[in-house]
Design goal:
One of its GO terms (molecular function) is GTPase activator activity. Helix content is 9%, strand content 38%. It has 1032 residues and is mostly beta strands. Among the domains are: 186 residues, no CATH class; 207 residues, Lipocalin, CATH 2.40.128. It starts with a strand and ends in a 10-residue tail after the last helix.
């Protein structure tokens, strides 16, 4: 009975855990997924973006971010700020209006939803009678005018959302006040536009879809003037002085109408089809902005020739004889223009064009010649090419940081020198204590370096590996290249480019040494590049080497993609990271694991066929090891045997079920147990009062060697430890496979003075086979104090204590099912923590992290951060393997998010909540990066920079509310759900976006599955003993 008991909780330890661990989702980095609406406050200088999932996000100066989530998961159709107030209105596609306020709590601003309202019609009325098409906040800040599909305009008082029937403008009332000829010629249909007179708040312009435009007097309830167009109306714009109205139409034209109280114009002053005379698409929105130079800016969306350029997403700018059609690679959602903020000013004088596209935000400087782009400090388009992997590096040395920034500045010469114009609010977040890098690998063969130190994820530098190889298209070809005389005058803008020259260029693994500046990058076609940082542009050849991982194994025929062809001659490289050696794995399968030891000048790589070690100083191969099992039929024969292997897998699954049932019958007791004395039972119960029952363990069937992909190399690890005997430590390389095998190689690295002449030698010293053959996802060596060994060169730079080489070292092997500690060098089992048997989950990510105390500056502990396939994050102590805390972080159905997770060395992490957004979370009480900011609308009073909108406002505002999941649930302290795998979870399948490593083109042994095609696919159910590649 005692073996089922374990000691209870230690109160002092529980207090210490509260000082060390705390789970928070802090900030979302990147570009909002599926944006649907744009709003801007000229006085607050804040930008608002609504999404199709019901989120509303506000952005100001760098570090000023706000986020709210509607209770309903409906799309946001329109966002508009109330003039003179720290409030905004959102319209959802369910026809509901929501009022949000920026309020100060605890010294920081908060975004809160105050109330909601749905416009109701009379009983029996058609839904279109109250279906809102446009919202106009009146400058009095007490009224909303709502245009509807029925042609009626309703008035709603705010706050309170009380409909005022006496202020409504019905289509019948407008019709009665029109001349007889206008009544006969026009049917109203829906309201397309509502605009308040820029000088007189008692006048409102109403535009109807059939082309009728009226100026309505709110005080006298009468039509002051009207205009009739022969084309369907899309939008209107009022000139700043109120004397001119510009309307745009469905035939690609726009018209200018003179506003006069004395005469009623029958025809427009001017009608223009900018890209005629051939049929054009509709101009959906237009701005007419005056300048001191006399010539206005005309900025409009659409209007392109229908036959030749009807599929383009363009916004055109016309001024002073110059015309440019900015061509975006994704659909334009909306746009606005930032101009003079004072309503009494005589001219607009626009300074910037802000365009919200479906995949990025683009800001264009209208004051600099050529109208260049402005580099955004946030809202980065992370998915400009699909993200395929990520790598986080903490505490970057200042010298390396400055060199990376200098290399990146050479790539940003095409951006405008203008400061970021959306700069409302004040960031109160403390200065980041250290410099952190987040590296993302992309499908197009690029690696992007992001500043992940604070709230804003800022692009520092972009590395491209395309120039090393021959591709299907010449990288010098640019879509934006066009002659000066071409018409329309298109110019490509933005960074979103979802197309890749060659899918084999995709980056799968990244490893950066922050001390030496060496970088290793591995790709989809078995290419491994080693790069070093160079501050100057250089032209040199990249040395090539080939690693045959099959070692002439017979009976194998590669049916996958071909290797990439490297350029043989010298290649010119920009300042930054420049490759100097290329190792090509054969067969050219996806590189699944990568490790770099810059002190020994070695790089290790692994694929589904084996792993190898390369000396990048001497440019020679040290050794290769084939890990294929003879029964690995799918890996040997290629994907043509999929059907056969599927039948075999199903057959094995049914056999395991039958064996499990038979064994359970054998374990079932034959009859009731004997009677127990009452006194003994009472004593037993008394003894259990202070003890805790250990949970019942599941029976885990051992995986057989016949399961597919046993040779898939999941992890590689360098360590200086005791491998042969306890008296002498030596360099070593450890490799873990999908079949539960761990290989250990002893390395002989010559001393520094003879390193360039003598070769590095390797000899296999150990081989460990885990009993259940579960995939090995992590390997770690602990020193005599039970602390993980420091990184290469970390001790030499005085950034870490020297490891304890006196006491016995320990080897920690983390498989999908359990954690196991072995003593070194004997490799005898010492400790074990079962995860799958106890909780039913499997390890997906594991990383060692240091957790500092929030109370004592000099106290901290080393632990393991573990992510499971259920989306739970656990902290496990080292070296005793005791679970500390567990938090629910990612929805178990979000397989893509779980696969993309990456931990930092200080208890933080990132994972993709959409193709374009990273969610940042923290497990530590000490390391917390979150927006803390204040918004004071009064700061705009003496602001001299031109803005767009009305006068100053008074009030304070807030940062973001407590972060919530996309489904509206708050993440804090949510307990884990029922045990099991994602396929056993309730609810419908999630929306799984396409992963960049889709199966197309991979004829490799561990064929990469496209998760978007298998929304309910689970690694565990799909292949016991086989792992889907989780390097997204």
């Amino acid at each position: 009975m005692r073996r089922f008991l374990r000691s209870g909780h230690d109160p002092s330890r529980e207090r210490l855990k509260r000082d060390l661990f705390q789970f928070n989702k802090t900030v979302e980095h990147g570009f909002p997924h599926q944006p649907s609406a744009l709003g801007y406050s000229p006085s607050l200088r804040l930008l608002a973006i609504g999404t199709r999932s019901g989120a509303v996000k506000l952005y100001g100066a760098p570090g000023v971010e706000f986020m709210g989530l509607h209770r309903e998961n409906n799309a946001v159709v329109q966002v508009c700020f109330l003039p003179g107030q720290c409030q905004l209105i959102t319209l959802l596609d369910d026809n509901s209006l929501h009022l949000w306020s920026l309020k100060v709590k605890g010294g920081v601003s908060e975004l809160q939803e105050d109330e909601s309202f749905t416009l109701r019609g009379p009983p029996g009325a058609a839904p279109s009678a109250t279906q809102i098409t446009v919202v106009l906040p009146h400058s009095s800040c007490k009224m909303l005018y709502l245009g509807t599909e029925s042609g009626n305009v309703f008035a709603v008082q705010v706050p309170g959302f009380r409909a005022l029937e006496d202020r409504a403008i019905s289509s019948d009332a407008v019709l009665q006040r029109l001349p007889e000829e206008a009544r006969q010629r026009r049917v109203f249909e829906m309201v397309e536009a509502l605009q308040e007179h820029p000088r007189d708040p008692n006048q409102v312009l109403i535009g109807y879809s059939r082309g009728l435009i009226v100026v309505w007097d709110l005080r006298g309830s009468r039509v002051l003037c009207h205009f009739l167009s022969s084309q369907q109306l899309d939008s209107v714009c009022w000139q700043r002085d109120g004397r001119l109205i510009v309307s745009c139409h469905s035939d690609g034209s726009y018209c200018q109408w003179a506003v006069s109280a004395d005469t009623q114009p029958l025809e427009p002053v001017r009608s223009c089809v900018p890209y005629g005379p051939f049929p054009c698409k509709a101009i959906t929105k237009i701005f007419w902005l005056t300048t001191k130079q006399g010539l206005p800016f005309t900025i409009f969306q659409g209007g392109m020739p229908r036959a030749s350029y009807g599929d383009r997403h363009c916004i055109s700018v016309v001024h002073n004889g110059q015309q440019t059609a900015f061509d975006f690679t994704s659909r334009v959602i909306d746009f606005t223009v930032l101009s003079e903020v004072d309503p009494a000013a005589a001219f607009d004088d626009p300074c910037a064009l802000v365009v919200l596209a479906e995949e990025e935000l683009v800001v264009i400087d209208l004051q600099t010649a050529g109208w260049p782009q402005v580099q955004p400090p946030y809202l980065a388009s992370l998915h400009c090419s699909a993200i395929t992997c990520s790598h986080h590096v903490s505490n970057i040395p200042l010298k390396l940081w400055e060199r990376i920034i200098a290399a990146g500045s050479c790539q940003n010469t095409h951006f405008s020198p203008m400061e970021w114009p959306i700069d409302g609010g004040t960031s109160l977040a403390p200065t980041p204590p250290q410099r952190d890098l987040l590296l993302t690998g992309h499908e197009d063969g690029t690696v992007r370096f992001w500043d992940a130190s604070g709230v804003c994820l800022r692009l520092l530098y972009k590395l491209s590996t395309v120039h090393v190889f021959f591709t299907d298209s010449d990288p010098s070809e640019h879509l934006g290249a066009q002659g000066e005389d071409e018409w329309p005058p298109l110019r490509k803008v933005g960074s979103f480019d979802p197309y890749s020259d060659d899918p084999r260029l995709g980056i799968q693994k990244i490893f950066l040494c922050k001390y030496s500046g060496y970088l290793a990058v591995a790709g989809t076609a078995g290419q491994v590049l080693v790069l070093e940082l160079n501050d100057e542009a250089a032209e040199h050849s990249v040395e090539q080497a080939e690693a045959d991982l099959l070692q002439e194994q017979e009976g194998y025929r590669w049916k996958g993609h071909e290797r990439l062809c490297a350029r043989p001659g010298p290649v010119r490289f920009e300042p930054g990271f420049q490759p100097f050696v290329l190792v090509q794995c054969q067969p050219p399968a996806v590189v699944t694991s990568l490790a770099l030891h810059s002190e020994w000048r070695l790089v290790a790589f692994g694929t589904s066929h084996g792993f190898g070690l390369f000396d990048h100083q001497q440019r020679r191969q040290v050794f290769v090891k084939c890990t294929l099992h003879p029964s690995d039929q799918l890996a040997l024969e290629g994907p043509l045997s999929r059907v056969k292997s599927l039948k075999k897998s199903l057959r094995q699954s049914f056999r395991r079920i039958r064996r499990s049932r038979v064994s359970s019958r054998k374990r079932r007791p034959a009859g009731p147990a004997g009677e127990t004395q009452e006194g003994g039972a009472r004593a037993e119960r008394a003894g259990l009062q202070n003890m805790e029952l250990a949970p019942v363990q599941r029976k885990i069937e051992a995986r057989t060697a016949e399961d597919s992909f046993t040779g898939f190399v999941r992890t590689l690890y360098f360590a200086d430890t005791y491998l042969r005997d306890s008296s002498r430590h030596c360099p070593s390389l450890w490799a873990g496979t999908n079949g539960g095998t761990v290989y250990a190689f002893a390395l002989r690295v010559p001393p520094a003075e003879r390193r360039a002449d003598e070769p590095v030698r390797a000899e296999q010293a150990k081989e460990i086979q885990l009993m259940h053959r579960a995939p090995v996802v992590g390997i770690l060596v602990l020193d005599g104090r039970g602390v993980p060994l420091p990184e290469p060169l970390e001790v030499a730079h005085d950034l870490s204590k020297s490891p304890d080489m006196q006491g016995g070292h320990q080897l920690l092997v983390v498989s999908e099912e359990q954690f196991k500690v072995f003593t070194l060098p004997k490799v005898s089992a010492k400790l074990k923590l079962k995860l799958t048997a106890l909780e039913g989950s499997r390890v997906r990510r594991v990383s060692a992290a240091h957790f500092g105390s929030c109370r004592a500056e000099d106290y901290g502990e080393h632990h393991l951060a573990v992510l499971t396939n259920l989306g739970d994050i656990q902290v496990v102590s080292l070296p005793l393997l005791k679970p500390q805390v567990r938090y629910s972080c990612i929805r178990r159905e979000d397989v893509s998010g779980i696969a993309s997770c990456v931990f930092t060395r200080h208890g933080q992490g990132f994972y993709l909540i959409s193709p374009s957004e990273f969610e940042r979370f923290s497990l530590s009480t000490k390391w917390l990066v979150e927006p803390r900011c204040l918004v004071d609308s009064a700061e705009t009073k003496n602001h001299s920079r031109p803005r767009n909108g009305s006068g100053p406002e008074k009030g304070w505002g807030r940062a973001r509310e407590e972060p919530r999941h996309r489904d509206g649930a708050r993440p804090a302290q949510r307990r884990a759900g029922p045990e099991g795998d994602p396929e056993h979870a309730g609810g419908g399948p999630p929306e799984l976006w396409r992963l960049a490593f889709s199966a197309s083109g991979h004829e490799d042994a561990p064929e990469l599955l496209s998760l978007s095609l298998l929304p309910q696919w689970s690694e565990r159910a799909a292949c016991p003993g086989r792992a889907v590649n989780t390097h997204y």
